[in-house]
From TrEMBL:
Keywords: Aminotransferase, Pyridoxal phosphate, Pyruvate, Transferase. One of its GO terms (biological process) is alpha-amino acid metabolic process. This is Valine--pyruvate transaminase. It comes from Leptospira gomenensis. Pfam families: Aminotran_1_2. The lineage of its organism: Bacteria, Pseudomonadati, Spirochaetota, Spirochaetia, Leptospirales. Its EC number is 2.6.1.66. Residues 174-410 form the Aminotransferase class I/classII large domain. Transmembrane segments: none annotated. InterPro entries: Aminotransferase_I/II_large, Class-I_PLP-dep_aminotransf, PyrdxlP-dep_Trfase, PyrdxlP-dep_Trfase_major. Its cofactor is pyridoxal 5'-phosphate. GO terms for molecular function: pyridoxal phosphate binding; valine-pyruvate transaminase activity. GO terms for cellular component: cytosol.
Amino acid sequence: MRSAYSDFGKKFLKQTGIGQLMDDLGNPPPGSCMLGGGNPALIPEVAAVWNEIVSKQIDSGAMEKILGSYESPAGIIELRERLASIFSEESGSEISPAQIAVTNGSQNAFFFLLNFFSGRFSDGSKKKILFPILPEYIGYTDQTLEENSFLSFGPDIRETGDRSYKYFIAKEKLDSYPDWKREAGCICVSRPTNPTGNVITDEELSFLISKSAEADIPLLVDNAYGFPFPGVVFKAASLIHKPGMIQGFSLSKLGLPGARTGFILGDVETISMLQRANSVINLTNANLGQFIALELFRSELWKNLCRDVIRPFYERKSLFARETIFLKWNSSIDYRIHESEGAFFLWIWVKNLSLPVSELYPILKEAGAIIVPGKTFFPGADSNWSHREECFRLSFVREDKEIEEGIVRIGSVLEKFSK
């Protein structure tokens, strides 16, 4: 039967990115400390807001319309108007509803976008997605329809403390490889970055904006954890939007991953293409997330929720996880933690291991600690680059007791395999 599958079908038989991760996370050994997932935490104050909004919709009889009708593939117009107003205010740029598409999650939207700007073009050329800094989000790895669709550049790695470091865009690498302008169909970056928690600086973002304009290609920015919502950024930063940028936003990290609702801000032509693609693939968007978002943005509850509840919660969790590692891990483990500037994860680099992290993964799993090996976050990287096998992602959204126990278990395994 498998020989009857198309090349597109067969790619899902051998996927190694987010599909494999989701399989593993769905079937952990009993008693495991689940420090590998991307779910947001269940924050009581946030859950109370969703309960209030949904209860209000049920009491008003709105659920009949929400669950019993199709909305436009473009998304509810009032929601797009509200988003245009928010993005205009936050960025200082004038945004219209025609520049916004609603999608069934930003993962869904980036599948479309990455394939819009990579692959075969009418002039016979083949274009790739340029990642100006690695590591990057695991969810990009399996999304392109064409094989070999990534052009990537390793980072400038700078140690910032005894046990800390940070990735920066290695600008000289782009400058020393001028063919990227011919090969790239778009530039893509996430901010903050999943998996590292890195927030590229405003100056680095300006550099990418200028480079994309220079090559006349779009700059895709994934704001799943960023501004203006959920705002899980622990340093001074803001929403920046310039011509040529296409940006993704999501309700998932705001606390609604099950609603599968995302938003794309971009130029009118790309947004129109996205809406048409959505009507073909999905017919329309899921209603529940849109109506929850509409009430959230209409009431402006989101501002206090992000600033006073969500951001402080994750900043505290990040600090707790880092302090637990400092306290619990043996000094024989030669590790560094990437500067935690946002998102839900710590990115840990362990030097001088006798086994690569991908081979330690099943040992850690057997020990009851689920993490995500680093090599899956390096699309297009040289497979011989040892750094890929020295890093892993650790989620800090779980209960403190589970985080602490998981860190202890990880430390015990790393200690055994430290040279």
